Amino acid sequence: MKLSVIASLFSLLLLTEGFFITLESSLYLPCLTVDAPKLNDPTLSWTFTPTSPPNSSTIPLSSTGDRVRVSQKDGHLSLSRVGLEDQGTYTCQVTGYLGDRMVKLKSSYPVEIYQARFELWELVEGQTGGKLRLPCSPPPPVLPASSRTTYQAVWYKVTQQGKERVFPRIRGELGEGSESRFSWSSSSHEKDDYSLEISDGTLEDSGVYQCDLVESRTLQKPVWSQKTELSVREPPTEPPPLCLDYISPWGDCVSESSRSGRAILQESLNEFSLKVYSQLREADKTQNLLFSPISIALVLTHLLLGADGDTRMHLENALSLPPSFSCLHNEIKNLRVELKDSVEIASNIYHSPELMLNDLFINQSKLFYSAVPEKLTNSSEKNVEMINNWVAEKTHHRIKELVDSMPQESLLALLNAVYFKGKWRVVFEGVNKNAPFVSLTGDVINTPVLYSSKYKLVQHYVPPLRAQVAEFPLSGKMSLYILLPSTPSAEGLQALEERMSPVTVKTMVETLSKVAPQMTEVMLPKIKLDIKTNLMDLLDGMGLTDLFDAPKLCGLTSMHTDTPLSLTDARHRAFLSLTEEGVEAGAVTSLSFSRSFPTFTALRPFVMVLWNHEVQSPLFMGRVTKP
Q1: What is the pLDDT of residues 155-171, one digit of tens each?
Q2: Do 37 and 89 lie in a common domain?
Q3: On the chain, which terminus has fewer CB atoms closer than 10 Å, C or N?
């Protein structure tokens, strides 16, 4: 006896509305709608029936290639980068059991693909009374170089009523009958330039214009068209606000260079340091010189945080920074963190209550420079006291006065303090000793000196500088380099300074790092320098004159006020002492030496560089012509 089992099959067709999507977009189709019944032991399949050509065969679909995916989880179909060939009907079929019945469910999706189109319009702005130029230069593929066909351009003004021909006026006589204000920008149409020029522009000239390129013989259907939107305005009666086109504050750090941000900052600091030295040494070639390039740089980079337009470009040039170096302030923050155990660096901004600082500038000043801007008072005396107290505190009272006056009209004061106190790694003998120091003029000055009869010293003749250089290691990964000119004269000192560059100074540091120390008799003059520098002259010499007259500091303040903003005070004061204990500085020093016997005596004018090996940059630089 045979047992026959007959399974009945019940079909349910679920029709969905059509899908309309654009070319190159993605298509997502669920297999069944949410209200479809749930089947037991389901089997799922997708098919596709193309729209073109008609009566096309149905194609089974599965997860094939990079474009088609069928989800193993819920059975949905996804198709990426659809093309016109993907138009048609997509059908999902599920076979399974609904209770004790075998059923089939189908979902069908008619899909149409549309190709989005766009028009490219030129935008032209002009002022009344001036010349207006409407461009019309078809690209090379439109006019093949080998073609003998000649072409002519016809200009129209496009309105809601249609196209109104404006130039040339008469179809049969293309060169005549046109309004006198309209003319070809290039009469000979050199390089296929059919641009239109309108003289003595008016407000009524505003609108949309169309340039049609047609064959000169037929003057019929254009082979190429170009639309231009012209906006004509009255000339401004007063200059626009400086920050009219300002878009955004200092952006996020995005590395776009193969070099690390630290390497870029180190290179820029070194170039800036030598640039400042070159500027300052020219001011007075015979006097002592002392400054902190990193202190001056951090004042300018802090200001750069809020600069825009030409002001930002000029600051970047002065600081030897690459344009739009977005990671600058992050790297400065990292540098300050790395130096915190050996060098104290502080920044601040004082501003008039009239100058409303942007919240973002204030927040970024705190983040990158640990600076909290403070408001000036109505009292010049109190402002002077407030600033000088801050300076004294940050320099451990080695510099007690930076400013002696603050005019009531002052709007902005930028401050930076750098303090370093390092001990000699090789100590000097504690003896009181004097020695003759010979100045540039030949005068002999009896000078207290640091002395050691057996000092473990690295010294070497550096050919690119043509100078004998000695390295005195200090605590905090610092070294004091003393550069002694080849001849003991003003000319010899100036020649050494002229040969100092980022390359030669870096060569000096690398050269001495490979030299073994020797027992040497050393004499260095005890030094205590305190030198003021007018930064206004320095900034002027570095091309930053726009800081003094309406700078574009759009990230610092909106500047949409009646109060003009200008930098009114910029000063630098450097302190350095050289004692038996070590070097204490708010600036840099240099010492001199002799090459004759294993001795090193800095008893004539010399250059000094206080170098930090961690950031590979000078923190202080200067020269000593008279101890």
Answers
A1: 999 988 888 888 886 54
A2: yes
A3: N
